[in-house]
Each structure stands twice: as C-alpha cells, then as structure tokens.
Amino acid sequence: MFEFRIVPKIIFGPGSIGKAAEEIKALGGTKILIVTDKGLVKTNLIKKIIESLKGFDLIVYEHVTPNPKDTDVIDGLNLLKEKNCDLVLGIGGGSPMDVAKVIAAMATNPGSLWEYQGVDKFKFPPLPLILIPTTAGTGSEVSRAAMITSSREKRKTLFLSWHLTAKTAILDPELTLKLPPTITMWSGMDALSHAIESYVSKMANPLTDVYAEKAIALIAGNIEKTMADGSDIGARSNMLLGSLLAGIATANARLGNVHGLAHAIGGQYDLPHGLLCGALLPTVMWHNLEYCTEKLKKIAIILDEDAKSLPLKKGAERAVELIKGLCKRLGLPEKLEEVGLKIEDIPELVEKTDIIPTNPRPTTKEDLFALYKMAITGSA
Ligand SMILES: [Fe+2]
C-alpha cells in the first residue's frame, strides 16, 4: 500500500513567469508580500517580475538569509501583518521559498513559531501562496517541508505539514540562466541527492521511483553542461525539470542520511546546503550499500549503461564510484575538513543530527560517528 500526492498547480517552461499576474488574480490576491533575498533584489530578475505585476500592491521582504533563521520568519510575518497582505509570493532558492511557506502558514495559525515545529502541527490552511524557484535544486516549490534554523540553538528544525504547500508553482528556466556556475552546481547536487535519497528511501514506491529515475538521468546528464555553458536553455530546462521531479519524489518518499547530516552541519557552520549534500552523497551511498544494492545498481545503469553486465554488488559499487567521479569533476570537497570541519566537532554534530527513519540502513549513533569521520577525514 502507498500514498502519492502532488499538491500545487505546476506551470513549467521558458517565459512561464508571465503567468504570475494571472495566477495571483485567480487566487484573489491584491496586497502581495514578496519574500526573497538581498542578492536577488539586486538583480534584474526581481525588477522584471515586479514590473510584470503592475496593478498589485507589492511589499518586498528581502531579508531572508541562507540556512534561514527563525528571525527571518518572524520579521517577514510582522511585515505581512502590518501591511495586511493577502497573498505570499516566494521567489528564490530554497531559503526564500521555505521562509515564504512558513510565513503564509503562520499568518493564519496563532501562537509562536516553535509551537509548529515537527510534523502536522499547523491546524489552518495558509494564506494563498505562490512559489517561484530561481535555482534548479531544492524542490521546495512542490514540498510540504521547510527547514528553519533556531538562531539560539544553531539547529535546523523541520516543519512538515500539508498547510505548508503552495497553490501554484511557476518554474521558468529562463530565471536560472544567470546563475553563477558554483550556485548552479551546488543546487544541482542538492537536487541529485533528493533524487537518489528518495529512490533508495524506505518509503519509495513505484510512482516515486518513476520520478526519481527520470530526475537522476536529467540532473546527471545536464549538470556539467550547465556548468560549461550557463546560457544553454535546453540544459537549464532539463535541470529545472529534474529538480522538480526529484522534489515530487522527495515530497512523497522523503530523504535519508545525506540530509540528516547536511542539516546538522548546515545549522552549525552555515555552509551551503548543496555543497554539503554533494560532498556527503558518495559516503552515505557507500554506507547504505548493503541495504539498497538493487536500487544502487539501477542508478549505475542510469548513469552508465555498461553497468548492466556487472554482478549486483559490483553494480551498486559502480554507482558510488560514478557519483564520486562526478563530485570530483565538479570540484566538490572530497573531505569536509577542506571546508573547516574538524574531527573534534563530531560529538556535537551527532547530538544535533536527527535519525532519518526513511534512510535504507537503520542508523545508530555509532553509525553517525562513523559517517561523520568518513565525511570529514575521507577514511573510516
Ligand atoms: Fe536538500
């Protein structure tokens, strides 16, 4: 038995941003809170979107930070209330979209933010919410999850609820054309880790498998093309589609230890989520190998047809090798000590790591110590 759900209306394709005004009107929005970040506000992108929304009362909240904090949500929510906004428009990567989701839900659910952390705590539907990703990575536009960091505890906290979903997601690959190669790569590796983690998840089902397999092929087949030529709209479209499909798979099958570890490290050290996911992916795949051998062999075949002839375990090992090779070519750190993590950090990180029940290999605290040691030093 399995359940499968795709929530927002999805509008996809070059130029689809032109549909935003129509969608806002259809949802009855008049006073719009645009949730974004300072980096984006400086670009032509937001200016263009704002120009296309003439006739609406627009309030821009641009103070979302990477690994967004509780204070980002609270400040945005206060602005929404002060200005009486009736619709939230999240534009950006995962951080602005996650903050937009929580602001829209907090606008209709009373009390303090931390009452709603965890699973299914929001009682009332959110304000109408439209999400517009500008990176091909998080899949946040189709998920019911938001990660918010407690600024006091430096801990990333999951908010998971169907009341955190958008009414409409607009995915326009043209918005990703100007992304610098590093951000393109980090976002792409986040998306690839979503596809692989949902594919080997304990909650994977035949429908999520279809989405995850297609996502793996699209992302692995296009990430280097977008790095080499950011203006390749075909490759950009494939990456955005891959990230969307991975997001749908993840929304239904959830994630694994790559994200368990990446969230703990990201909350503590404020390092980019995609960098961490990419750097952790081969280690976690290797650690899970005995528990998802068939799926890993299938991944190897998606990445390289010649893997078909390999025996099962060799095929699974080939998948890890291929992903390791991709990470190396992309310039991701092979050891997290390269980005400042230290072996003495491990006990605190383990304390802050949530055990992810959907990871294929049941994970103990000892496993987490071993995973962190491998990820930081490159050896067991
Ligand atoms: Fe992620």
Architecture overview:
By secondary structure, the protein is α/β, with parallel strands linked by helices. The chain has 2 domains: 9-176, Rossmann fold; 181-377, Dehydroquinate synthase-like - alpha domain (Dehydroquinate synthase-like, alpha domain, Up-down Bundle). It has helices spanning 20-26, 38-41, 44-52, 70-83, 94-106, 181-199, 206-228, 233-253, 257-269, 273-288, 293-303, 312-330, 346-351, 365-377; strands spanning 9-12, 31-35, 57-61, 87-92, 118-119, 129-133, 145-150, 155-160, 168-171. The protein has a 6-stranded parallel beta sheet, sandwiched between helices. β7 (145-150) and β8 (155-160) form a beta hairpin. α11 crosses α12. The protein is globular. The structure holds fe (ii) ion. Fe (ii) ion binds at residues 138, 190, 194, 259, 273, 277.
| The CATH architecture of the largest domain | Up-down Bundle
Structural class: alpha/beta
N-to-C terminal Cα separation, in Å? 38 Å
Shape: globular
Main pleated-sheet profile: 6 strands, parallel
Strand content: 5-15%
